[in-house]
Amino acid sequence: MSVKVRFAPSPTGKLHVGNVRTALVNWLFAKGQGGSFVLRIDDTDLARSTQEFEDGIETDLTWLGLVWDERYNQSKRFDRYEEAAARLKASGRLYPCYETSDELDRRRKVQLSRGLPPIYDRAALELTEAEKAAYEAEGRRPHWRFKLDGKRVAWEDLARGHAEVDTASMSDPVLIREDGLFLYTLPSVVDDIDMDITHIIRGEDHVTNTGAQIEIFEALGAKVPGFAHMPLLVGADGAALSKRLGSLSISDMRDQGYEPIAITSHLGKIGTSDNLEIAASVEALGAAFAFSKMGRSPARYDTADLDRLNAQALHGMTYAEAQPRLAALGVDLGEVFWDTVRGNLNKFADVADLARIVTGPVTPVIEDPAFAAAALEVLPEVIDAGAWSAWTTAVKEKTGAKGKGLFMPLRLILTGQAHGPDMAAMAPLIGREAIVRRLKGEAA
Ligand code: GLU
């Protein structure tokens, strides 16, 4: 059976680097094996889900190159969840409970004060039909809990190796709230069964859920898929990123000018034994991906690494790739220009400043007017590819300046800046007329 995975975000917020890493690893694993990738919008919570967040998820995944093969909304599948719930009720695995949250709180406090684990005591299982009818008559509506087997659930985790959860130490999970809302646990299993999902890949914060969900797969008579639980992201300081994830949204990163391939290369390689290097494409990342390369230690998310990868992506970008974007910014000055400046870019938009060196106006920085005048006197008639070398040799002979004392003043005069691209290549692009005016101290 070919691999089929799913990314299942809830449209209750923007995608951030944490959930995009989950999406990416699912995608890489599937594509690396010729499998397929399902986008499933977990929108059972109609009150908190919005169309805007859902659209944002699609925009972000598309921008990152994580194209999906199938797409579903949980909100369109409630009848399937009802059917599964009916089956679980019929087999006695889903049972009604009438406790209010205050009552449950009080019971937990009593358990804790006695040194007992605060797990649900299954009092509702003892209710007689008459007692249930009395609650209903009072106007109480039941919530529904899944009766766990209370055994050790074990699986071979692709990322963690042998994994076990003892469901005897857990409360029976609530699958349906008293207002009828299906919580995430059951719909997720129903979908994974209906959609023939072969592997569930998600963060290690879901390990406990997996224990309960494996029991639900079994209770519904379905084959249990494979699982991979990835170590969570930590920041450069080693502290968990979870609280800061909200400020690391993909749409913000797009606005800040990050290249999608820098983001995917970074998120696809942190926490693995691969070097942090820019990938040629997200497909190439998929071909190189393997869970065996993923360690159990947390993945370090460091913006400095992302910045380095972003620069690497730009330094290797061909003119053909860059051209439409240069044109859109109104700074398409040709292939020679692009090849001259791309090595100086950290963000694509930096190219606009470098284009201004060519198109002007540049305010020349002249520290020694006599030097500028001498340089103008020996300026070659034609500024071609070889002109810079001939000119600087001549300026050196005429003024005695050399090394940095020769090149820095020329750079400051011609570009107005102390750093920038190779001047030998820039000079012909700037052109003789502008060079003359800048040497004379005119903004040109
Ligand atoms: N909607 C769930 C979440 O975002 C999906 C978890 C899963 O992958 O099963 O946490």
TrEMBL record:
Position of sequence motif 'KMSKS' region: 240-244
Amino-acid positions noted as binding ATP in the UniProt annotation, renumbered to this chain: 243
Pfam families from the UniProt entry: Anticodon_2, tRNA-synt_1c
Entry GO MF terms: ATP binding; glutamate-tRNA ligase activity; tRNA binding; zinc ion binding
SUPFAM superfamilies, alphabetized: An anticodon-binding domain of class I aminoacyl-tRNA synthetases, Nucleotidylyl transferase
Motif mapping: 'HIGH' region: 9-19
Domain Glutamyl/glutaminyl-tRNA synthetase class Ib catalytic: 3-277
Regions annotated as coiled coil: none
Domain Aminoacyl-tRNA synthetase class I anticodon-binding, residue spans: 373-440
Catalytic activity: tRNA(Glu) + L-glutamate + ATP = L-glutamyl-tRNA(Glu) + AMP + diphosphate
The family this protein is said to belong to: Belongs to the class-I aminoacyl-tRNA synthetase family. Glutamate--tRNA ligase type 1 subfamily.
Role this protein plays: Catalyzes the attachment of glutamate to tRNA(Glu) in a two-step reaction: glutamate is first activated by ATP to form Glu-AMP and then transferred to the acceptor end of tRNA(Glu).
Official protein name in the record: Glutamate--tRNA ligase
Organism (species): Brevundimonas bullata
